[in-house]
Amino acid sequence: MKGALIADELRVSIDSDSDIVSARQKGRELAAQCGFPSTELAVVATAISELARNIVRYAVRGEIVLRLIDNHGGKRGVEVIAADDGPGIPDLTLAMQDGYSTSGSLGLGLPGVRRLMDEFDIVSEFGKGTTVTVRKWKR
Amino acid sequence: MQVPILKQGPYLIATVQSALTDDDLKQLRDTLVDQISQVRARGVIVDVTALDVIDSFATRTLRDVAHMIRLRGAETVIVGIQPEVAFSMVKLGLTLEGVATTLDLEEGLRYLQRSGKRKVQEHEGRPHR
Ligand SMILES: Nc1ncnc2c1ncn2[C@@H]1O[C@H](COP(=O)(O)OP(=O)(O)OP(=O)(O)O)[C@@H](O)[C@H]1O
Ligand SMILES: [Mg+2]
Hints:
By secondary structure, chain A is α+β, with helices and mostly antiparallel strands.
């Protein structure tokens, strides 16, 4: 088990297949603590799975940070930050298109995660790494 | 996490018990394709009731299983996809096109029995080997 709970923040280091599973399970637990209904738990877990797999496949290693967040208006949610120091993505517009894949896969991970979550932000610098931040708010 | 595979009549039934890593999924695929010919099974059921996530990799692997099994002359049914899992798959853009799915194991068995009969009818009138 990798990852320590610091207040409401959980860090999971990602460098193998099994880390993908543990990251999504921890994300699901956190979202359950927040009171998300089961449909949304699956949504959050699936998004984490895609982001973690991208880390393993394209950057070899990285980290997923899971946080319970608050919008200062009493609304609660979960934030997932998937960060790596890998090769980065040269063309983000292309990477966000359905079906675009450099590994012969389905090319649905990134655009799919954007559809699954409420907020999506991606920063990537070629040669330096990629950080994807997503949020899901409790309705 | 190994997936137990049981033989029931002419069918193989793989029951996923808990979350699977990518390696587990690949192993399941290879074992099923291997066993189908060894035991001369006519159909495969993969019960995914226990899966709380079916992401792009799992979908691709399940699709591959069904297509490989078909090339080996048998049928595959994926059974028990949970409603919230189905919801996430659709949002992500994942489809199991060309792969038979049923609500549960019982329906899956019924599906295979029916498709077995169809095959026999198609072959009626032709000399048997
Ligand atoms: N963390 C990352 N570091 C470097 N490149 C990445 C990273 N994440 C995604 N990419 C690039 O963006 C492309 C699109 O990613 P996306 O997850 O949408 O599709 P995929 O991983 O190719 O296929 P799928 O996720 O459907 O299996 C990838 O093929 C890869 O080139
Ligand atoms: Mg991907």
